[in-house]
Amino acid sequence: MYVAVKGGAAAIRAAHELLADVRRGDRDVPQVDLAQIDQQLGGAVDRVMAEASLYDRELAAVAIRQARGDLFEAVFLLRAYRTTLPRLGDSEPLNTGAMQVDRRISATFKDLPGGQVLGATFDYTHRLLDFELDAPDLSATTPVCTAPPPPRVGDLLGADGLIEPNPDDGSTPADITRDPPTYPASRAARLQALSRGDEGFLLALGYSTQRGYGWSHPFAGEIRRGFVDVEFVPEELGFAITIGKVEVTEVDMVNHFSGTEDTPPCFTRGYGLAFGHGERKAMSMALVDRALRAAELGEDVAGPAQDQEFVLSHCDNVEASGFVQHLKLPHYVDFQAELDVLRRLRAERIEEEALKEAAE
Amino acid sequence: MSSGYNFAYLDEPTKRMLRRSLLKAVAIPGYQVPFASREMPLPFGWGTGGIQVTAAILGRDDRLKVIDQGADDTTNAVSIRDFFAKTAGVATTLSTRDATVIQTRHRIPETPLQHGQIMVFQVPIPEPLRWLEPRETETRRMHAFADYGAMHLKLYEDVARYGRITTAYDYPVLVAGRYLMRPSPIPRFDNPKLDASPALMLFGAGREKRIYAVPPYTSVKSLDFEDHPFTIESWDRPCARCGAADSYLDEIITDDRGGRRFVCSDTDHCNQRLDAKEKAA
Fold first, then answer.
1. Which of A42, A156, A306, B124 is spaced 20 to 30 A from B205 at the CA atom?
2. What pTM value is reported for the model?
3. Is residue B164 within 8 Å of A345, Cβ to Cβ?
4. Which residues pair with B65 in a beta bridge?
5. Strand A268-275 relative to strand B33-34: parallel, antiparallel, unpaired?
6. A120 to chain B nearest CA, in Å?
7. CATH number for region B12-126+173-222
8. Does the keyword Lyase apply (chain A) (predicted)?
9. Smallest CA–CA separation between B57 and chain A, in Å?
10. C-alpha–C-alpha distance, residues B4 and A163, integer Å
C-alpha cells in the first residue's frame, strides 16, 4: 500500500467547488447583492477598505461576499488586487481641516468653536439585542450637520504653543508598499503601516499603553469623521484638481510631555486616520503612534507598543494570517529530520543507560 | 485569469525591481537584500517570496517544475504550478532534468542539478540569527561584522547538553566564507548539494521582504566542529518503492500497530527509477 497524496490537483478543485457551494448556502435564500453589503454592512466595508488600504466600496463589497463575510480573507483579496494597480502619482495631502464633518467630538473641552457633533454613533446605545430591527421606524428624519468645517482642536491649542507643531519638512514621505522596511522607520512609514494594520492588534497594543506597558497619558483631543476631497496635480495641468472624495475618521490624541533641555513642556500628539467609520481603529492607531515616538521624545522604550520592530513587523494581518496558517502545509521532510535527531538522541540515551546498568 | 494581468502576474516595473535585487544578491553571495515585496494572490508564508522570484526570472521558453517536500503532487506545489501555467502560460514539467527553473519548498532534488538550471527556494525566515536575536537592527550589525560567535555558541551548547548538534533542518551554512545563511527549511541531507552546485540558487522570503542567492560553483559550508563534524540523516532501509538507498525518505504510517514504510520524498527521482526498472525487466 502506497498512500502518498496523489491527485492533489483534483482534490484542490473539489475543495474549491465545495467552498463555492458553502458560500452560496441555501439556494432558497436570495443572494446578498453588493449594494446591500455596501449600504447595510458599511462597518465591514470600512474595515476591509482600511486594512486593504484601497478606497473602493464596491470592490470591498465584492471581496466581502467572495470571502463569505470573513473580513481577513476579504482584506487579503482586496490587497492582492491593489498590488497589481499602477501608481500614477501622489495626491496632495488630505486637508481634513476642511472636512464636512458628520461627527466631531473633543474630550478635552466642554464646548469649543464648531461645537460637539455626535453624528451616527454606537456610543451611549444600550447593547440590547433589538428584535424589531427588521422593521425599523424611520419616519422621523434626523437633521445632518451642515455647519461649516470647525477649526481643529490641535490648532486651538497650538495657537498658545501648548502643543507641539505638526512637523512637515516638505520631504516626500516613504511608501511602505514600494520601499522595503528599514529600522528605525520614519514616522510617515510607521503611520502608513499602522493605518493598514490589523484593528484588533492595534486595539490590544493601544490598550496595553493604558495599563502600564509603555508610558502614556492620552486625551482624545479631537475625533472627526466625514468626507474630504482628494486632490491631485496632473503634470500636464500643474495645478490641483479634485478627483474624488473619501470618508475618513481622524483622531488627534493629546499626550502629556515633560519637555527636554531644548524644548519647554508642551503637549505631544498621537495621530490616527482610518477610512470610513473607523473610530476604534483610529483611536488605537493614535495611541500606538504616540507610543512609537518614545525614542524620539527621549522616553524609555519599555512596553511592546513602544517597540518599532515588534509593532511594525507584526501589525499586518495579511502577513500574520498567512504565516500562521502556513503551518497547515505539509512539513513531512522537516518533521522526518526532527524524528531522525530525536531517535538518535533517544538511542544514545538508552545505550548509555544500558552501559551504566551493566557497570553497576 | 490570463487576461487582465501581465505575463507571470507581476507588472514589469515590479519585476525590474526584483531583478535588481536578485543581481545584488548574486553579487554578494549569502547576503540578504531587502526588497519591496508585493502581496501575491497566495498567502504570505505559502511561497510568496519564491513566487515573486520565479515571476521575475521566468521567460516564455522556460520549463517550470514546482515541488513541495520533494513532491510535485503535494497540494501547494500543484497550486503554484497552476498559477504560473495560468498567468505565464509557460511549459511545466515534473522532471528535474528537463526543468529550467525549479521552485521548491523544503527540498533539493536528488537528481544532480546542471549548469544553467535555477533553483528558487521559498523561505519562511531568512535570518539565521533570528532565534538568537529578534531585532533586525542587531542582526544586520552582526552580519556586517561577520559576528557569528552566537551561532557557534548555540551549536556548542547543543553538543554540551545533548552530545550532538540538534538542529535538524534549516541548518546554518557559511556562504563563500563570508555570510551566514539559512538554506531554508531543507533537511541537513540537502545541505551538501548547495556546495559548489553548478546551478544558480535563489532564495525569496516574501513576508520578510528579503532575497538572497548562492551563485553557481560557490562554497557553501555547513557549520560544525572538528570533533563534531556535520552529519546528514540516514536510514537503515532503502525506499520501499524504488529501492533507492541514497535518497531522502519520508516515513509513512501504514497502520495503528506501529507499521511504517519509507519512500523517497523526491517523487520524480522515485518514478524515474521505477520506470528504468520496468524498462529493464
1. A306
2. 0.88
3. yes
4. B102
5. unpaired
6. 35
7. 3.40.50.11310
8. yes
9. 18
10. 50
Catalytic residue numbers of B read 30, 239, 242, 264, 270
For residue B34, which of B49, B12, B51 has the smallest C-alpha distance? B49
pLDDT in tens, A189-206: 999 999 999 999 999 999
Block residue for cell numbers 461645537: A115
Rounded average pLDDT over A13-36: 95
C-alpha distances in Å from residue B31, one per residue of A57, B28, B180, B219: 42, 6, 8, 14
**Do B273 and B116 meet the contact criterion of CB atoms below 8 Å apart?**
no
Residue with cell string 502643543: A163
Give the best residue of B17, B31, B39 to mutate against chain A (max A CB count within 10 A): B39
The Cα B233–Cα B43 span in angstroms is 31
Please report the pLDDT score of residue B254 as a whole number: 87
Nearest to A319 among B44, B185, B186 (CB): B44
* Cβ-Cβ contacts under 8 Å, A308 against chain B: none
Cβ contact, residue pair B137, A332, below 8 Å: no
Burial call B192-212: b when 16+ CB within 10 Å, e when fewer:
ebbeebebbbbbbbbbbbbbb
Can you give the pLDDT at residue B2? 46
The pLDDT, as a whole number, for residue A6 is 54
Residues of A in contact with B45 (CB under 8 A): 319, 322-326
B84-94, pLDDT tens digit by residue?
Answer: 999 999 999 99
As for the ipTM of the complex, it is 0.81
Cβ within 8 Å of residue A316, ≥6 positions away: A193, A196, A197, A198
Hey, are the CB atoms on A180 and B170 less than 8 Å from each other?
A: no
Contact present, B200 and B119 (Cβ < 8 Å): yes
Count the helices and strands in chain A (H runs, E runs). Answer: 12, 4
